[in-house]
Amino acid sequence: MFARIPRRRIGLWVLVSLLACGALYSVARFTPIFDVSKIEVVGGSADTREAVAAALEGERGRSLLAVNGSDLMSRLADVPDVLAIHFDRRFPNTLKVTVTPERAVLVLHAGKSAWLVSARARVLREILHPRLSSLPKAWVPAKTSIAVGATLPLSGGGLAAAALAPVAGSGLNAHIRMVDTTKNELSFELTNGLHVRLGDTGDLRLKLAIAGRILHTIGAQSGDSYIDVSVPERPVVGSANSQVASKG
Question: What is the pLDDT of residues 64-81, one digit of tens each?
Fold first, then answer.
């Protein structure tokens, strides 16, 4: 039979163990044994990885045990292409950062200048040759203030970006040429000339799904034809030169 160990002694052992672990952790954290000497960045474009690595240079010489996500994201606040990160401590001295990049959905024009804008309406960068991009286009007044890294207000291009964010998978994403947000009413002009009228942003995913299904059904049409899903329960396909052609 094993002798019964008093609870007080067990408690003392646990306390001593915890204190020893804490001491070891403190030694490891505040000595150079696990200081960051290598930063490995994966994900995103080569330019994004380079920018992230440069922004995180301040982590070199810091203990891996002291690295935390909020500090890393704070350092990356000025890197507009970063949506999120995941980091791993690769002991003894490597910090690995995996980048989830922002997804560009729009080319925003203001006067003679143009910018890439993400699905979150964040301005990613100015582009010199916007005609080379296949992304949908939108226009704001030439005097609109636009800064790289800023998040656009709804009236300054943000609404167009918000409308495009859920487009993937709707059947429209490869066909949109232009986004019009006149009077906060959304509409898309497709590459074949067809217009998709969405109305306000309510039930946007449903409207996009319905428009995508209609587009798949009717095939390629051009000219002044339109699909109106502003009232998703009563979609309309018609022509600007005629009355309603059909109702869903």
Answer: 988 999 999 999 999 999
> Do residues 238 and 221 touch, judged by C-beta distance below 8 A?
no
Candidate CATH numbers 3.30.110, 3.40.50, 3.90.1520, 3.30.160; the one for domain 104-247: 3.40.50
Q: 34-101: what CATH class? A: alpha beta
Residues 6+ apart with CB under 8 A from 35: 60, 61, 62, 63, 64, 93
The torsion of the CA quartet 198, 203, 205, 209, rounded to 10 degrees, works out to -70
* DSSP state, residue 200: S
Query: Rounded to whole angstroms, how far apart are CA atoms 229 and 210?
Result: 7
Measured from the Cβ of residue 138, the count of other Cβ atoms closer than 10 Å reads 21
**What is the pTM for the complete model shown?**
0.80
